[in-house]
Amino acid sequence: MKLLNGIRVLDFGRFIAGPYCATLLGDLGADVIRVERVDGGEDRSLPPVMPTGEGGLFLQVNRNKRCLTLDVASDSGRSIVRQLVQGADVVVANLPRPTLHHLGLDYATVRALNPRAVLVTVNTYGNSGPMRDGVGFDGIGQAMSGAMYMTGTPDEPRRGANTWVDFSTAQACAMGALAALWAREKTGEGQLVEGSLLKSAVIQTNGLLIEQAVRDRNRQPQGNRGFAAAPSDVFKTKTGWLLVQTIGQGMFERWCDLAQVPHFKTDPRFLNDDLRGANSLDISQAMAAWCALHTRDEALALLAQAKIPAGPVLSPQDALEDPQIAAAGLLVPRSFEGHDGEAVTFPLAPHPVDMSGIDTGYRSSAPRLGQHTDDILLELGYSDASIAALRRQGVV
Fold first, then answer.
1. Are 183 and 191 within 8 A, CB to CB?
2. Tally of CB atoms within 10 A around 85
3. Res. 131: pLDDT tops 90
4. Residues 14 and 100: beta-carbon distance below 8 Å
């Protein structure tokens, strides 16, 4: 079953949080129209992998969409936007508030055009406070939530290389859009769904912030070593790196036997997870010495036998070749053909959850720039002659 069959989504988003939210709705069957500048959005080429300029991130977060190019600042472009909004179920626009008002995509305008429409927006800092109207990216959430501070070392905070704030915001907004559509079935009314990068980031560091507020712990970053238990660290073997994470008394005692440090079981510094996290350096050193005696595969096999969670640290190329990732269908070969006719095959991650009764399958690759402009305008009632005129005027 295509859950959102018959639902139309307008995607005015850029980069990740908005576009990936729309992608998730497209995976569920919605007709998603990406509205893009006539010369292409700034997110289309990140990072470039095609001779025609399309980028890997763009290919990831724009599958199952159609593309309409449009100068939304022109009078004719604004008229087309109004027509699109009047026929839309969901409008996704992760744009600054002043830009939303300027383009007529603020909720008051959208609601006046279409009371049943759900407007999904994403801001950086939330809906109030001195930074309310500021702009920002994923890294701002990492920096201001405590995550970046705790990821690094006392001498150097470190930003996570992957944009987890953006992707978690996109998933939350997609959930909000689905909830709003469900509510519309009961009320007949659309509503405003607002996500925030800083909110998403603080949600993920909330446990740490609760501890700080209640216990005034003032934890200091310690690189890859976890602070909630030990051993929880990255270790070098004869043939590569691996990550080990333990929690709980039973797992710790099994690790002590494996690493041949049985006296750690009664060491007063290691009597519970909290103490082990606070005194983790000696534990990590013992584990490092054990790992240095084994190849990575040997160490992983022994850890698995002891029921201790561990995994290899993979390079991007390693991840492409990893048998578990392949067997689980986490990277599926897809193809994209550019304007010049040259095609590329690339590995695409699927919808984040599998459902037994709902189809979340792949229908089409990310669209070429303006690939569906004529089709969409014809659906709105424009003639071939009027579309040609719009092209001459640079509107589409």
1. yes
2. 21
3. yes
4. no
Alpha carbons 261 and 280: distance in angstroms, whole number: 14
Is the pLDDT assigned to residue 294 strictly greater than 90? yes
C-alpha radius of gyration, the chain, whole number: 25
Tens-digit pLDDT profile for residues 269-292: 999 999 999 999 999 999 999 999
Tokens of 261: 């440090």
pLDDT tens digits for range 71-123: 999 999 999 999 999 999 999 999 999 999 999 999 999 999 999 999 999 99
Percent of the chain with pLDDT over 70: 100
How sure is the predictor about 51, in pLDDT bands with cuts at 50, 70 and 90? confident
CA distance 195 to 227: 30
- Interatomic CA distance for residues 177 and 199, integer angstroms: 17
pLDDT at 341 > cutoff 90: no
- Block residue for tokens 């990072």: 47
Backbone angles phi, psi at 245, to 5 degrees: -135, 125
Q: Closest Cα to residue 337, out of 376, 360, 364, 361? A: 364
Q: Which residue has the tokens 């599926």?
A: 332
Give the integer Cα–Cα distance in Å for 178 and 323.
Answer: 34
List the structure tokens of 156.
Answer: 């150097």
Look at the pTM and tell me if it is higher than 0.85.
yes
Residue 162 CA to residue 142 CA, distance in Å, equals 11
**Distance between CA atoms of residues 363 and 361, nearest Å:** 6
The answer to whether 21 touches 32, Cβ cutoff 8 Å, is no
Structure tokens at 319: 């991840």
Q: Are 285 and 225 in contact (CB under 8 A)?
A: no
d(CA 210, CA 167): 24
Q: Buried (b) or exposed (e) across 174-183, using 16+ Cβ within 10 A?
A: bebbbebbee
In the structure, how many helices (H) and strands (E) does the chain have? 17, 11
Mean pLDDT value across residues 232-253: 98
> For residues 250 and 322, is the Cβ–Cβ distance under 8 A?
no
Q: Kindly tell me the burial class for residue 297, based on how many C-beta atoms sit within 10 Å of its own C-beta (0-12, 13-18, 19 or more).
A: middle
Burial of 112-142, coded b for 16+ CB within 10 Å and e otherwise, reads: ebbeebbbbbbbbbeeeeeeeeeebebbbbb
